[in-house]
Design goal:
- By secondary structure, this protein is an all-alpha fold.
- The protein has 13 helices and no strands.
């Protein structure tokens, strides 16, 4: 299959097949954003409160109020270099609650302006394809874990944070399972906004897949407000690759799994969770290569899921990946 044919298939993605005059109305688009931001802010606050109370209730039930109070040390102790495993899960739970609340509030309100249900930003309103999510989680997780292993074998200093959260295998496994679950929730929130709402709204005005990938990637990187240009490029490449996944597979499920796996491997094997923002550093040219590898890898995972017959059967992706 030639590149032109693949791009044409992405342009005719089922995810974009239901675009209507409501989506193309510029006035609706103008009003949708501030209304969505307002609704997202309120829902983010509710999500943060709910997640915090749930985490405190669980910890208090296990170890009592003193242990629950210790969780807030991750926010109140400026000298804390690295949170404990329990504090890391607490931060993840709060962030997942904030992200999910903000995403659902924003997309629900903005989508209402365009006469859309929130499920239409997942895969066109069909039942969620859970196996595609699991497929993305496994494919990207295994690939990135292998890359970290290769880096360790070639002399790269690797000190997995997962090894430090518990002295035994049971504790580490429990931590990893809970962390991955929370990261799936956080990734689903970001995918709903960027590869859901934003991709559909952008495609209402321009259908070129390359333009959509570049635009989505740049906005996805910008929202993270990282002061380093090299890290910005890596996130932009990630956003572009996830956009291709949504176009080729007709929805965001594969991207949710891939996004969560990327974050999980970084958190568990590369660097720990921290509440401190990334500090500015000198431009690292090597990260340009990392960005290109990430873009190619995410595109490769999308093509594998769309073309590999055995994987298509397991994920139940029966229809061709184009309208």
């Amino acid at each position: 299959m030639r590149m032109g044919e693949i791009l044409e298939m992405a342009k005719r993605s089922p995810f974009l097949a239901d675009l209507s005059s409501y989506d193309r109305d510029p006035w609706r688009s103008v009003f949708a954003v501030p209304l969505g931001v307002l609704a997202g802010a309120v829902a983010a606050l509710l999500g943060a409160i709910t997640a915090t109370l749930a985490a405190l209730l669980i910890v208090s039930g296990l170890d009592g109020a003193p242990a629950a109070g210790d969780l807030f040390g991750v926010f109140t102790d400026p000298g804390l270099a690295e949170p404990s495993g329990r504090q890391s899960l607490f931060v993840l739970a709060v962030l997942a609650g904030v992200n999910l609340g903000a995403a659902v509030g924003f997309v629900f309100a903005a989508g209402a302006i365009h006469h859309r249900r929130i499920t239409e930003y997942v895969n066109g309103g069909e039942p969620p394809r859970k196996r595609l999510l699991v497929g993305g989680l496994v494919l990207v997780g295994v690939t990135m874990t292998a890359l970290v292993g290769v880096a360790a074998l070639t002399g790269e200093p690797i000190d997995p944070p997962l090894w430090r959260v518990s002295p035994n295998l049971v504790g580490r496994t429990l931590y990893a399972v809970m962390a991955v679950g929370l990261l799936v929730v956080a990734a689903a929130a970001e995918e709903l906004v960027f590869r859901g709402w934003l991709l559909k709204q952008s495609a209402a005005y321009v259908r070129d897949p390359i333009v959509l990938m570049v635009l989505n990637g740049l906005l996805f990187a910008a929202i993270h407000m990282d002061p380093n240009i090299d890290a910005f490029l890596v996130r932009a490449a990630m956003g572009a690759g996830l956009t291709w996944m949504a176009l080729r597979l007709g929805g965001i499920e594969l991207g949710i799994g891939a996004h969560a796996a990327n974050n999980a491997v970084i958190l568990l094997l590369v660097r720990p969770m921290t509440t401190r923002p990334d500090a500015p550093h000198e431009f690292k040219a090597s990260l340009i290569a990392s960005a290109l590898v990430m873009l190619a890898g995410f595109i490769g995972v999308a093509e594998l899921a769309a073309r590999w017959p055995a994987l298509r059967r397991w994920t139940r992706l029966q229809a061709p990946a184009a309208a």
